[in-house]
């Protein structure tokens, strides 16, 4: 898939975000020079990016870390380039909240990158804790059994409780502990919890096809589960003294059912350079723009 230039909306957000991390930078005043003139030198904000594959952007060009499948055009990189920030990007595909404090394969615990000098932290986490990729695989497998119905919803709620809702509730305290861990390591840092973009059509009308093997009735169910996940992240951010960034609303209409060129989330069978069911380059730009808007308006 050819790369698309940012939309005018995104370019405006990127321009507004030029002050993004510099807006949180502390201006350090140098000692008066011998001649008596005071010099003001801006402190480059130390920015640490934490999170999973929605932050690392697997298969989006250019890949700069073979294990974590991290892109040089993921949203943390775009944020850092639009400012004078000094970035440390430890985002990693497959990360759960456990990867914040324990190694993930060859990757060190992500919170090791956060310290008292850190000015800003972005965090995208939770999707792997609730096993959303496994849920989606289950939904794809069950779709043929009732293409016009909602076999996945029936399977996941058949016990009388919703398994995904239970997983989201169980993940909430884990996210809260990650936020507390960031505060402990970087007491003066701004913490931004970045939610997940819109994967499924907001109106619940699906697009069942070989590249999107989901039953018609499961689109609305999966949309609602993603919204539940984002709502939980927003609550934990608010309770933990962090800022939440809604990337869902700005990406409505650019879900995996949208046509090529308008699609910011790739389907089960990607049509462009991105992992299945993940943001492509346009999606990462949209996420960066959403974070920039929040930071610019609340610095």
TrEMBL record:
Annotated Pfam families: Lipase_GDSL_2 (PF13472)
Return the protein name. Secreted hydrolase
Please give the Gene Ontology molecular function terms for this protein. triacylglycerol lipase activity
Organism equals Streptomyces laurentii
Signal sequence region: 1-35
Keywords on this record? Disulfide bond, Hydrolase, Signal
BP GO annotations: triglyceride catabolic process
InterPro entries, per the entry: SEST-like, SGNH_hydro, SGNH_hydro_sf, TAT_signal
What SUPFAM superfamilies does the annotation carry?
A: SGNH hydrolase
Q: List the disulfide bonds.
A: 68-92, 139-152, 207-257
Superkingdom of this protein's organism: Bacteria
**Is the Signal keyword given for this protein?**
yes
Q: Which residues act catalytically here?
A: 53 (nucleophile), 278
* UniProt keyword Metal-binding, yes or no: no
Looking at the record, the residues that make up the SGNH hydrolase-type esterase domain are 49-286
